[in-house]
Amino acid sequence: MRHLAYTAVIAACFLAGTLAGWTSLALRVDHYAYDLLTRFTPPRAAAPESVVVAIDEETLRARGGMRRIRPILTEALEQLGAAHPKSVALDVILSDAGDPVEDARLEAALRATRNLILPCELVAGAAATNWEEPLPRFISAAVAVGHVHPEQDRLDGVSREISLEASVHGQRRWALALEAFRIARGGEIIESPDDLTIGSAVILAPRASAGRPLLLRYVPGGIPTVSALRLRDNISLLRDKTVFLGITALSAARDRLVNPYGQNIPGVEVHAHAYETLARGEFLKRPSDLTALAEAALFAIAAGLVFAFLAGWPAYAAAVLVVVAAHAAPVVLFRQDLVFPYFGPAAVAWLSCAGAASYQHFFVRRLLRRTESEKSRYQQAIHWAAHEMRTPLTTIQGSSEIMTRYALSDEKRKQLTENINSESKRLARLIQTFLDVERLAEGQMELKREPFAAGEMVKTCLARVTPLAENKKIGVSLDTAVEGMLTGDRELMEYAFYNLLTNAVKYSPAGTHVRIAAHYHRGELRLSVRDQGIGMDAKELKHIFQKFYRTKRAEASGEVGTGIGLSIVEQIVTHHGGRMEVTSEPGKGSCFTMVFAATPHEEAADRRG
Ligand code: ADP
Fold first, then answer.
1. Residues at CB less than 6 angstroms from ligand 1
2. Whole-number Å distance between alpha carbons of 343 and 260
3. Which ligand 1 atom is the nearest neighbour of the CA of 545?
């Protein structure tokens, strides 16, 4: 039961942490952690294979602005031809017809460009999303068309990945950077569910996630960039490179993006970074949701085990280790090119440690409280037993002493022997009662369930209490016939009823009377003991069934007692399905009534038969 509750606590912490990991705050934190890790764990240094040819502010200013983009492109392409790049990927979508002369010149320049790759983009139109492509006359000059859809994070606008494939209406396009890479490597794209293969290059890009996302590994120093205006001076930089030609001017570029380094870069450069990511072949991999969950579960389990098997400061020290591990895991894994979430597992680790610690703390405290109360209960019980045994022991001791010391008549000797015998029997009964009550309190004992006549039990008790009462000059009488059969443990019931009688005698002055009355009505037997003793007030009445409670009046009366008898009486009565009723008035007397379910004589006798 305890293990189950503990496991439930840990599971709840795991669930809460995991759910917290899916909130937008958590995603922001994950992104922030990713950006930091990117900065501290850059890809290995390698000479870039690509160059950005930038139509920058300077170019636009010198060549007449965006209005004249076609002549500007034409001129750039013409000059690029002389530099013999490996391929040219253009990041300007020429979807509208322009000036016929300009278009014709541009078409000629495009046709003259070796390995030309043109862009296309998904554009949401009035009716549906469609591919926006360059004019067919331009496309016919290209060896490939690749999409340039920029991928920005919904939450913070940072560009961390691109989709390697995008499709609409069954028309699929590879990313511009991927087409450029394919042409650079000279092969076909071979698809598998987990990756793309081009020649000997394997690109990790599982199809499971929509669009085969590729996490970009930005080149820390940026991609070498040449202004379109200064191509002539930088021809040597371009030889055998993959050229990305696009607009970088702040005033004109539609697609300026922020990278994890916090740099604001033009879209055309993002394609070049994607290209470099492909060329370098070091891919960052996101784990599946299940793997990430398993990682978080590991921390929850670790926290659970720590507090299950350790206690005190070793437990807390180990918990700190678990939490540190949860924070360090993404860092270590990132070095292995694995991008694990940061927030979720850390939240799970914190919550599980806190949950497990609190549970154990409270559980241990509860356990301690219970053993303490058990200990004191046991001590009290011993105290009571020792006290109760004193009287019969004194009688036995006294009688045996008299027998050995004096020459006694046969009759006297017989009487003393009987005394010893009956008192030792009482002692044995007392011990049995003590053990029974202890076991009853611990819930270990099943009550005996045998029918017995209530009248016989009352008579036995009356006989036993009579000498005691006579000693104190108190009269005891049974005023009514006792009808009914009780079911249960006769010994225990006798003990309880006898206790009421001795109390009545104990707490009454000489010359008074104790009356026993029985009333049987409709299956309920009421057995009452009424005295004319010291009585109790209403406040005292509330406590008399508590262990060790004694009224001031009782203490003052000089009668010894432990204050435990009535608590046992009540236990016995309730275990028999009955209840106690008490009325009392200080100085006037008390009436204790036991109420039980009972059966008439014949019925019980029939059942027995
Ligand atoms: P004990 O008699 O050993 O003190 P009990 O549990 O039998 O312990 O009784 C608890 C207390 O209830 C007594 O100490 C006494 O103050 C009060 N009490 C019990 N019976 C009577 C009674 N018949 N008249 C007055 N007070 C009583």
1. 503-504, 507, 531, 533-536, 544, 549-551, 554, 561-567, 590
2. 18
3. 6
* Strands across the sheet containing 475-478: 475-478, 513-521, 524-530, 589-597, 579-585
Tens of pLDDT, residue by residue over 386-408, are: 777 887 888 888 888 888 888 88
| 344 and 19 Cβ atoms separated by less than 8 Å | no
Q: What is the pTM of this model?
A: 0.62
- Residue 503 domain-assigned (yes or no): yes
Q: What is the mean pLDDT of residues 491-518?
A: 93
Domain boundary among 336, 362, 397: 397
Q: How many folded domains does the chain comprise?
A: 3
Q: Which residue among 389, 503, 514 is best mutated to probe the pocket of ligand 1, counting the most ligand atoms within 8 A of its Cβ?
A: 503
Which among 180, 199, 188 is positioned nearest to 113, based on CA atoms?
180
Q: Give 193's DSSP letter.
A: S
User: What atom of ligand 1 comes closest to residue 563's alpha carbon?
Assistant: 8
* Residue 273 structural domain: 47-280
Query: Which atom number of ligand 1 is nearest to the Cα of residue 547?
Result: 6
**Most informative mutation of 507, 529, 532, 537 for ligand 1 (most atoms within 8 A of CB):** 507
Residue 305 shares a structural domain with residue 230: no
Render pLDDT for 413-471 as a digit per residue (tens, 0 to 9): 898 898 888 888 878 877 776 776 676 666 666 678 899 999 999 999 999 899 889 98
What's the gap in Å between 216 CA and the centre of ligand 1? Answer: 86
